[in-house]
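Support request, please re-run this one:
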Amino acid sequence: MRSIFAGAALLASVASTAGAQVTATSVNGAPDPGVGPLSTFTATAGQTNILNFNDCSAGNAGNGFSTTGLAAGISISGGGCKTVSASGQWAKPATSMSGGGFYTTTSYPNSPITIDFTSWLSSNSYNSVSSLSFYWGSIDNYASSQKVQLIGANGNVLKEILGQELTTMYGNQTAQQSNRRLNFALDASAAQDFRKLKFYSNQAAFEFDDIAMQTTSAGTVVPEPATVTLLASALGVLGLFGARRKRNGNTQG
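Re-run finished. Output below.
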């Protein structure tokens, strides 16, 4: 009997993650760097800026990101925080909202940048991220040159976007078409699963700024319809099994 309950729980668990959906949209770079798409782009309504890299001072810009302004529980590996463009290496995003510093891959070939929100989400009692966005500077659309991934709790890729999906420009440093705010809308399953962002670049640098999120505090989680249906089916099977055992005179657990 216990094995059947375990099987039902596993089926419900699989249903809650297998159908995870993430939708990506983007808008051109903001014409007004003092406002930015976060407040003018309807898809980012309700989001709060989590990382702006503005504490990336000139004194430590060459040695990676200064963690003095990094929220507790967020960790960053790979790349480095910069304040100005460097010819042939990286370019400051043209119209990021906050100004100040930005983050970028820093070596060739570039290892990925990983931003891990796991501890931050836990320590702030958040159980889901329903949407998130960031400002992507001078997007390069050479095949597979630049890409970003949303990563789940088990290292699974929830969504991957390549630079070539967003622009026909080739790393133009000032054109709005190749400086964009990329937004991800996560369904209930993906929202609970999301843990990390990964940024890859194997040719030109991957520059980004102003990561924003809309989070939901921990509480009662309403399961998706697919989960409810599967769980109901599993419980139905359990009921039939129990009734059959009773008719056969076997009441042991």
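The longest strand covers residues 126-137. Residues 1-17, 58-66, 220-231 have pLDDT under 50 and may be disordered.
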